[in-house]
Hints:
It is a single chain. This protein is an alpha+beta fold. It has helices spanning 2-24, 33-38, and strands at 40-48, 54-62, 68-72, 82-88, 91-99, 102-111, 116-124, 129-137. The protein is elongated. The N and C termini lie far apart (65 Å). The relative contact order is 0.16.
Amino acid sequence: MRLFSKRTARWSSLLAATALLLVACEPEVSVDPRTDYWAGTWTCNEQTGDLAPQVYTVEVDLGADPDGVTLSGLYNQGLNFTAVGTVNGTALTVPEQTVNGLTLSGTGSYSILTDRVTYTLNINDGGSTDFTTGTWTR
Length: 138
């Protein structure tokens, strides 16, 4: 009986080690936040701001830098209105920049659970600043 117990214990140990090795050899899946979270066409539902409420399309494309994106259509200015931003995981930063005479800056946060972006965008037309907030959905 002891011989059977020893063999069973050895085989169990060998089986467990093999299973562990197989699990450890699975390839890692790389996540690129720009393509997995951000890139695509979004419907923006602007909830606060001088022109709110309004709904319009925003397109997010890959930028030239490894963490860069281009944002077209912000502030309901049409898809020819293109700003640049950077992403760090689920966070978007739109650094201050001037596009077609409007100075803008803002931030966004992507929710993996809801596939939704919550954003703030500040727009200055040279006279006053409009503070907008809203959500993007696909």
